[in-house]
């Protein structure tokens, strides 16, 4: 619960686009009149033509939005441009227990705002017929699979037929609701048997594109051919000549929607109509207003100022990319946001909540597994100290932190995600009634990429540590004897060669070769399991004797090697004494039917790093063999 006021959710896409310019501002002003909060769930939608797999992840957040927290819902479905997105959101909104109003497309089962587009188009066509006395009128429709294009063409034909004129006028050209068909349309209309006196276009963008192409061909607008558009876009107002158009006024849509929603939230029903009528804006492209070029200078100056501001914002966006690229830890994100978030409008609060799994682990870490409905704050910026700070996980039933003030607040929630995973969501409150600029979207994309990089770096680091651990384990296995745990021959060779190669000067070193007496007898009489036990016991005794940094290893079978740097006769004597003592103690305590005995040969010599250990071991081996052969009742090796 944000505060005690009613809270309305608004679901839309590309709310910062030129077409929807000012829409949020109008709804926020209307919400103040009914004393309500609005939480906008804004989507970026399709970004370019080659990033569809990236766009799909944006709608994962829908699954975690608990609609119980809202008293009413507004749905603006017209802007969704990712396949399946509109259907997914409508399916979600059908589960809502509060009233849902669709403001741009008809949705069965919702309350719907209806637009008299038919009356707007009719009045434009009749304006050319009645005021300008034009009878040769062409029509540029949008792509005919779109319902708006179908309706506007239908009305054009009806009016022309009612006036006793050819219902297709001087010709109908199928456009694209965008800027790409102007050249082709100009050639089409100029090649007709009768040149049109005016051309009615299904929207402003096509009217601008057509007018531009006509002017390139020497056609004066409106002196030679008049042109009209539809939708009342900002571009149409800035274009010279200004486009005559019909518009769905955003103020009218917002006022009507909020009026109906207020009644539904309070009473469950509403009285009055749900119709928004278009306004006709008669301007220069039809000839109702003259082009005053001195006044256009102000518009040009304003556009130039916007271009300069845009350039500065681009520089700030580039700087933000560089700053975010330096972020190495999640807790550095807040500092980067405070430093870089300067080019999309003034905000009073910003929060980044990351999703956790069922064990509380963050979605941007490698351990993350099964998603939960809980989110924890990674960034908490509250400039006015308005919000009750919490570091505890927030459930999706309360996606906005509790605020102290009892006045309407307006929030914009957007998903933070990459093509592989949703990380969480951001929430921002602006200082005035309008929404942020497109540069906020750019910043969030950069923020998403940064979090994705940290997540994948974490994966790489964890994988590296795991592989390193496995490597070390395999390495230890490869250089150790499985039976005794001592170095095997390879391990002994590596360790002893490393030790002798690191001798800084000549020093006394020692090599020893030890061999068990009578192992073959033990194996033959008592079995190989007992033989293995004897080998392990001998290895344990040898290891206990190594108290002066000796390197010991099992060379194979019943033979053991020892190497020691910086050795002395005293150390060797102690080794021999301990060896005899420990063998005697073992034989006395274990009660074996055989005695554990070892023959050994040692070689002390001054050596340097160029000395070959294998040469020293040969001498030690010969001495060991000599000792073994000198023992009374000796066993064969």
TrEMBL record:
Keywords: DNA-binding, Transcription, Transcription regulation
Gene Ontology MF terms: DNA-binding transcription factor activity; transcription cis-regulatory region binding
Short name of one Pfam family: GGDEF
Annotated GGDEF domain residues: 507-637
Source superkingdom: Bacteria
Entry-linked SMART domains: GGDEF (SM00267)
Name of the protein described by the UniProt record: Diguanylate cyclase (GGDEF) domain-containing protein
Native source species: Ruminococcus flavefaciens
Source taxonomy: Bacteria, Bacillati, Bacillota, Clostridia, Eubacteriales
